[in-house]
Amino acid sequence: GGDYTLAEENLLEVLNSEDGDIRMRAAVKLDQLYETAYEEKGYSERISLLVSVEKGLAGADRLPVWERLVQAYSDGAAASGDSGYYEEALRVLDQIIGAGYDTLATWLNKGVTQQSLGDYEGARSTFTQAQEKFPETYLTAKRLAFLEYEVQSQTDSASRDYTLFGEYAQECLTLYHGR
Known about the structure:
The chain is mainly alpha-helical. It is built from nine helices and no strands.
């Protein structure tokens, strides 16, 4: 209703600020508003907003916008069935990694996105890199186990081998209980 319209107007006005941090915060809040309050403000509008704001930002101010952009692209892929949105999400995830702002979540999101595209080897490589970079977490072994399960489910039933799945699952449990 009216409160959302006023919030949207104010946030759109703030997007004209000279201060990159303020523009970034306004863009993130506006994207959150579009995501939750307006059903008709779809992923394409969210993507357009975030791409336009991201171009005017530098350094760490880009990270929250990039993270929202990855989510908007993923939402677009899920809603439309267009895998090109997953490709765009991967591009942004690679920007985050390349800029040195990566976290465990960045690597897991990249691997899951590759898995969604059917790029199982790419996903395996990404999860393995995450495992090397974040050896203390069970989450990478869990993702590798889920990936292996999916790979085996795509294999002819007579040729399925869940040995690697079992190894990843055991590693996951060991790391989980060792926390």
